[in-house]
What we know:
Blueprint: H1 12-23, E1 29-33, E2 42-50, E3 53-61, H2 70-81, E4 89-93, E5 103-107, E6 112-113, H3 123-143, E7 149-155, E8 158-165, H4 168-181, H5 192-202, E9 213-216, E10 224-226, E11 234-237, E12 243-246, H6 248-259, H7 267-281, H8 291-305
Antiparallel strand pairs: 1-2, 2-3, 3-5, 4-5, 6-10, 7-8, 7-12, 9-12, 10-11
Helix pairs in contact: 3-6, 3-7, 4-5, 6-8
Amino acid sequence: MCCVEPGTVSSPERDIKAVLDESGPDYETFTFERPTAGHQGEVFLVTLRYAGQEYEVVVKFQAGDPDFALEPFLHEYVADRTDIPVPRILVFEEEPELDIDAYFVTERISGDNLAESIGELDETTRERVIEHAGRILGDMHARIGFEGFGRLALDDGRLIVDEFSWDWQGFFHDMVEGYIDRFEGTPFEDLQDDAREYVAESVHVVDTSAVPRLVHDDFRPANMLFDASRSQPITAVLDWQFALAADPEYHIARTDFLFIDPAFQDADTRNRLRDRLYTGYREYREFDPDEGYEQRRAVYHFATLL
């Protein structure tokens, strides 16, 4: 196939062609589509025909993200250290030779988007999915830790904790204040004072000296692929660009909220699913949700809403 001509107007087809011309095999044809859910940024599911066979990959472009290199780094970092199902990076080009944004290409993992199905799953499958989510969190927290709290970033290709703090409560408070600041100029602007008051009155329950562990800060059903027929139903955890060194309890509480609380009105169902989440987690790490955790969980749920 001929290469993309310099100066042509950017479009998905043109940019994907440039990726394949630069990094792919001598393909015969290709097609592409956007995912129906999940994925942050410019992401495309690409099918290319090569030597009479079809191959499927995922292409993601930078699209203005200054920390774009962190995501492909974390894909490999996590895959090398855990059993978490993370798509492997096939190509990462931070400075492409052709006139396109930085990009990376991953293997395409089979599975349906969990967000599109979680409310319709039968009881047994739903419990297996929630328990697997707990195992993934436990695996992540058991195997990848840090010396302090902050946002993960790259410095000359090395993983670092940016905005570093020894104090989880202080870092969490500043992070939530940043979320509230974003209400400025939006329909939620008049809620800022109430939100700040709640945080100021409740942040004291957050543990100052928690143990910093890897936290995927966009760990939600829309960023999961799953296959109900598998014993480990979650087949892929996607979108790693928002990552923290943070309190594991914060991650558990966010997952509880994003996977369970909004979807089920019945308290017995929520409690049963929460127990399955904790059961999965305990396969890797101890976790005892005492009264103190229940207080912190409420604060972490509030932060998740922002």
